[in-house]
Structure formats: structure tokens, C-alpha cells
Amino acid sequence: MTALRILVLDDEPIVCKRLKPAFQKAGYEVETFTDSAAALLRMTEKAFDVVITDLKMEGADGFQVLERARQLLPQARIVVITGFATLDTAKESFRKGAFDFVAKPFKLGDITECVKRLEKGLKA
Question: 102 and 80 in contact (C-beta within 8 Å)?
């Protein structure tokens, strides 16, 4: 079985620095981006299985990224992470096709468990 391919997009470099080694240790292939335009460009070049995106960023916000990712990678599962979690942003994320919604600050285990859950769904 090939490794799950994960794209992480967050304008906070520390989030990318925390998630990348955790996912690599779990055996996943990971690419991280702090710029939404660069991440969207990469989605046109490579088929990712999972996209993890922040909501509030410079340039394209997470909702725009979520919508574009759904078009570019229809098979991908998208997880929204945000420091601005409200019931409205969660509902909007799911309405636009997110698989899960995680509020910051989060425990590393919360995100890795989320990816493990969706990996089971992708393999089923």
C-alpha cells in the first residue's frame, strides 16, 4: 500500500513544523506550505489524499482553498484547522465539503487520530 499523501497549509510555520514530522513518523508522505497560492499550485501537480488547511490566511482564505481543493482533488479528504472556531465556521466548512474541523490550539494526537480515521475510510 502506498503512503497516504498529505498537504498541510497553514500560514503559521510552527504548525507545519509540528505536523510534518508527526505525519512522517506515522509513515505518511507530507508536504507543507505557508502560502495558499503555492499550495494550490502544488495541488495541480500532485494528487494528495488529504489536505489540511487553516481558515484565516493571507491571500486565499481556507474556504477558498477548500473549494478549490474539492475541484482539483475530488477524491481528497479535507480537514480544516482554525484558531477562529465558531459554530458558523464549522457549519460552513462541512457545507463546503470538509471531512473534519479542528480548533486551535489542538493536541498533535487530535490531528493524527483524525488522519487515521479518514485513512480507514479511504481504504474501505
Answer: yes
